[in-house]
Design goal:
The structure is a single chain. The chain is of the alpha/beta class. It folds into two domains: 34 residues; 181 residues, 3-Layer(aba) Sandwich (Rossmann fold), CATH 3.40.50.1110. Helix content is 49%, strand content 11%. It has seven helices and five strands; from the N terminus they run αβαβαβααβαβα. Strands 2-1-3-4-5 form a five-stranded parallel beta sheet, with helices on both faces. Helix 2 packs across helix 7, helix 3 runs parallel beside helix 5 and helix 5 packs parallel to helix 6. The longest helix has 28 residues. The termini are far apart. About 12% of the residues have low confidence.
Length: 217
């Protein structure tokens, strides 16, 4: 057989080679995209940087930390000031569908407690969010809160126990009290004595990070 291939054959070979190169580039880009994970934060004003610039809040600081450490996580902050567990439960399906997170941080309940709303309803709302997240294939970090004893010790104790009960039932990692490292010092708060100051946000991030870091591996 002659070693001088027809021009048509050579042209076809070059076309196939170019197509193969493009296919390899495509596969490589898909593989890189597959390594990117989403972390969804469903919270209230404590996670929405109330009274501050957005970039000062602990969630934005978390996103910056992950970026600086070159971790393949994208942080989506779906927190809303004034949000209750009912609001979170009504939004969770849409947020899960839109962002497809691998990890969901649920930081809700404070506004229910401050308003004296029924705790069985709040608990059911949080459980709905947990179940929806797990059904979507996401792990859940539950963030607990505490409230002043305005509605009596029974309500206050039941509120705090709600988070531990849900975490135990669904085998979730639990951060018992978001504000634990700053609660005792009023200088860590804005003038309303409810929302953390900008200076307190890195402290909150460090507190959350201790429980969150193992879930990012």
């Amino acid at each position: 057989m002659s070693r001088n291939h027809p021009q048509g054959f050579v042209k076809t070979l070059r076309t196939l080679s170019a197509a193969l190169i493009l296919m390899l580039i495509y596969v490589g880009s898909v593989g890189a995209g597959d390594k990117s994970h989403s972390l969804l934060v469903m919270g209230d004003s404590l996670s929405a940087a109330y009274g501050l610039k957005v970039e000062q809040g602990w969630v934005s600081l978390l996103a910056r930390k992950l970026e600086q450490e070159k971790r393949t996580w994208r942080v989506v902050n779906a927190s809303i000031s004034g949000e209750t567990t009912a609001g979170g439960a009504s939004r969770i399906e849409g947020e899960l569908k839109q962002h497809r997170p691998q990890l969901v941080i649920i930081e809700l309940g404070a506004n229910d407690g401050l308003r004296g709303l029924p705790l069985d309803v709040a608990k059911a709302n949080l459980e709905q969010m947990i179940l929806a997240s797990k059904a979507a294939g996401a792990r859940v970090l539950l963030v607990g809160m505490r409230i002043p004893p305005n509605y009596g010790p029974d309500y206050t104790e039941a509120f705090q126990a709600m988070y531990a009960e849900l975490a135990a039932r669904h085998q979730l990692p639990l951060l018992k009290f978001l504000m634990a490292p700053i609660a005792a010092d009023r200088n860590n708060y804005l003038d309303d004595n409810l929302h953390p100051s900008a200076a307190a946000q890195p402290i909150l991030l460090a507190h959350v990070w201790g429980t969150l870091a193992p879930l990012l591996r």
